[in-house]
Amino acid sequence: MIGYSPAAALPAGPFRFIALDVETASRDSASICQIGIACVRADSHIETYTTYVNPEQSFAAFNTELHGIDAATVAQAPCFPEAWELLKPLLELHHLVQHSSFDSRAISAACRAYRLPNADLSWSDSVKIARRAWPEFKGNGGHGLGNLKRELGLSFQHHDAGEDARAAAQVVLLAEDQLGKSFDAISGTARKAQFNLPLGPP
């Protein structure tokens, strides 16, 4: 698990798209305690960046058991406004992928909690993309990352934000191959990010 490091640098774009995942300290969706991004280059190479975030609130035992993060883990980590100041400029320039709508809701909730302007982001859902690519998984474990890990032979540490972001990116890349279409064609949004680099079949 990659923690916060002041020397850590964001991957330099442009990218085809960026997958994003968050972990939270409690049932409060604003309680982000880890953010991971997986940046997909034109050749489909993936570069990840992960940072812990101090949610400035208590951790629920259930959440800590799920992802292994507690108050001691994030004691020296930036709070959300600091982390977001670093990430937001890169994210606003790219299409983003989340696995379900939880991550975008958490980002919006954290922005509201800290009275920050909501980011102007373009989101696609890799769950919906997976449903199109592998409809046969419906009722057979579904399209959650846990089942897709088994069905698609993915290797990652579930409930680590960086690992889950990479897995979501891999799902999209495999769906491109499965459907014979590019991310632009399967993203579910007509909006074009500034750094949009289509690759693969039309």
From TrEMBL:
Coiled coil start-end: none
CDD domains on file: DNA_pol_III_epsilon_like
Keywords: Exonuclease, Hydrolase, Nuclease
InterPro entries xref list: Ribonucl_H, RNaseH-like_sf, RNaseH_sf
Signal peptide range in chain numbering: none
Origin superkingdom: Bacteria
One Gene Ontology MF term: exonuclease activity
Classification via PANTHER family: DNA POLYMERASE III SUBUNIT EPSILON (PTHR30231), EXONUCLEASE (PTHR30231:SF42)
Name listed for the protein in its UniProt record: Exonuclease domain-containing protein
Family annotation (SUPFAM superfamilies): Ribonuclease H-like
Biological source species: Pseudophaeobacter arcticus
Span of domain Exonuclease: 16-181
Pfam families: RNase_T
Gene3D superfamilies with a match to the protein in the record: Ribonuclease H-like superfamily/Ribonuclease H
